Amino acid sequence: MSATKANSLMPVLFVPHGGGPMPLLREENHLELTSFLQSVSADLPRPKAILVITAHWEESVATISSASAPGMLYDYYGFPPETYKFKYPAAGNPELAQTIAGLLEGAGIKSQLDPKRDFDHGTFVPLMLMYPQADIPVVQLSLLKNLNPAAHIALGKALAPLREQGVLIVGSGMSFHNMQAFFSANPMTKGRSEQFDSWLTETLISAELRVTEKNARLADWQAAPEARFCHPREEHLLPLHVCFGAGSQASLAAVKIFSGFLFNTKISAFLWS
Questions:
Q1: Looking at residue 253, what is its pLDDT?
Q2: What's the domain range around 206?
């Protein structure tokens, strides 16, 4: 990433956030992911604010967190007591929330502000590793309950101007998310996850595919090899669609910045610079 580019346009980042709070616990299957999340911000320009599209928030219309001082939402179950005491005291940014609402309205996308929404683990788990000082304001954006891939790409396109305003757009989800497969001993699981990951990687990083072709492939992601095995429900994939929409307006191709294994399944992270 050139200094000029970095100064003029913030990157867009899609990261896998792992299972519940396990990356923060340094659970052995998450060590590779934890290490990546701890190191990734060193190569990014410092944001003025962070917008997180989290897989753990769905609303009927695009909903933007607008609290000035969000609390914590421990939306996981059965973990050690200390995981319900984590704090991420980053400020919210009501002004940015209003800006986002304006961008969506300008694109013909209905939205609403939520002044009570706290940081869910799709937000605080990766950010506690990426920006542990919690000194950058954070706003969250929900997914749409309809889980329509084209609608999420459109969301991203509407958000693209934020890149010129020093806002780091982060999609927090998983490139593979089949809970049963994570804990399966089936030897086919690894290969099946790699097939989908290869398709996803080619779609995002190819310099030969036009943006319109990439858009069409992602809109019809269910046609990809092993798509429904890797995502029985697509809420953890759709933050990537938002990132693609935002990032592809200025960057033909993404860069794969992390490729690893989680519970014997392939997971990846992507960056649009």
A1: 95
A2: 3-272
